[in-house]
Design a protein that fits this description.
Length: about 70
């Protein structure tokens, strides 16, 4: 089970382009609209918005898809 993440955490995740890293910029504990789709989130299963280190791309992921990075 993955641990909780907070704003400012440095994380990585798998994308179509391979492993990507970035910084958590928002934590959602309620359903939210993102890029035209409703993402389901709850206090028990939050979703996270992460800004890529290499681009300005922002992605939304569940905690199970993320891994903490040092530094």
């Amino acid at each position: 089970m993955s641990s909780a993440f907070k704003v400012g955490d440095h994380v990585s995740w798998n994308s179509e382009a391979g492993r990507v890293s970035g910084t958590v910029i928002a934590v959602h504990t309620r359903d939210f609209d993102y890029k035209g789709h409703t993402h389901h989130a709850s206090k028990e299963e939050p979703q996270y918005e992460i800004k890529s280190d290499k681009t300005d791309h922002v992605a939304a992921h569940k905690g199970g898809a993320l891994r903490h990075l040092d530094g």
